[in-house]
Design brief:
Strand content: 15-25%
GO molecular function, one term: NAD+-protein mono-ADP-ribosyltransferase activity
Number of strands: 9
Organism: Crucibulum laeve
Protein name: PARP catalytic domain-containing protein
Helix content: 10-25%
Order of helices and strands: EHEHEHEEEEEEH
Radius of gyration: 18 Å
Largest sheet: 5 strands, antiparallel
Pfam family, one: PARP
Number of domains: 1
CATH class: Alpha Beta
Number of helices: 4
Bound molecules: zinc ion
Strand order of the largest sheet: 1-2-9-5-3
Distance between the termini: 55 Å
CATH architecture: Alpha-Beta Complex
Shape: globular
């Protein structure tokens, strides 16, 4: 019988459960270097220096949550690992000991790790939805990403908890199937165009960075959490950026 490697029930995940969903990957594990490579390759923002990957956690889920994903995946396939940035209001994954999800309703990160994505929350905060009502992911780790929660893949606003020193990004398994490629916005979409399973926004006209949108909750599951950054306190970083912007000159750290 097939048991997903992200399932609580997989033999490698003994001791995991709904209170223990995050498993740190050792740096020696092949998955760590593959994800690190993908993260750094996807860092395309010319003005942001490539950050250091500090840790990667595997995200485990229940069989009940994974089963509908498997059923969906068995048809269109073309599974890809894609990034999604969201609000973090707690100190989850700030270090190896902080692996308990919080229960703050505004902490979307913990919500997604606990219950995966929910299309009904699309546009909750930002009414602008480039490709309509869907779940937004990207191969570009540094891009500005309008997601179901109106957040960016990498942005200082990501951390609501001010003492955070590091940032986090979700890596998701996404069933892309046959994507419909599009360069212009299509804000009224609620499903992919006929004969397709997702929309792939290509850079050029309305986009600067690639985006992949799926329109079914079961087309996506969170798989990994990448923790990255220079370890500088958030507040300090913000002040630093502000001073840089004001004087248009580098300031000493
Ligand atoms: Zn949280």
């Amino acid at each position: 019988m097939f048991i997903d490697e992200f399932s609580f029930d997989h033999p490698n995940n003994q001791g995991s459960g709904k209170w223990n969903r995050l498993v740190p990957l050792a740096q020696s594990e092949p998955a760590f270097s593959l994800l690190e490579k993908q993260f750094l390759k996807g860092w395309k923002h010319p003005k942001k220096t490539k950050p250091q990957v500090r840790a990667i956690f595997k995200i485990l889920s229940s069989e009940a949550s994974l089963k509908p994903y498997h059923q969906y995946r068995s048809n269109p396939a073309n599974e890809q690992l894609l990034f999604h940035g969201t609000n973090r209001c707690c100190m989850l994954a700030e270090d190896g000991t902080r692996i308990r999800l919080c229960s703050l309703s505004e902490c979307f990160l913990c919500g997604v790790i606990r219950n995966s994505f929910d299309i009904r929350k699309c546009g909750t905060k930002n009414k602008f939805r480039r490709f309509g009502t869907g779940i937004y992911t990207t191969s570009c780790s540094s891009s500005k990403l309008y997601s179901i929660f109106d957040v960016e893949a990498d942005d200082y606003a990501l951390n609501i908890e001010r003492s955070s020193r590091l940032r986090v990004l979700l890596v998701n398994r996404v069933v892309v199937g046959k994507p419909y490629k599009r360069r212009q916005n299509a804000v009224n979409l609620t499903e992919p165009p006929c004969g397709h399973h997702s929309v792939l926004g290509e850079p050029g006209v309305d986009l600067n960075y690639e985006e992949t949108v799926v329109y079914d909750n079961d087309a996506i599951r969170p798989a990994y959490l990448i923790v990255y950054g220079d370890g500088v306190p958030e507040l300090h970083s913000k002040m630093h950026s502000l001073l840089m912007a004001l004087f248009k000159t580098p300031v000493a750290s």
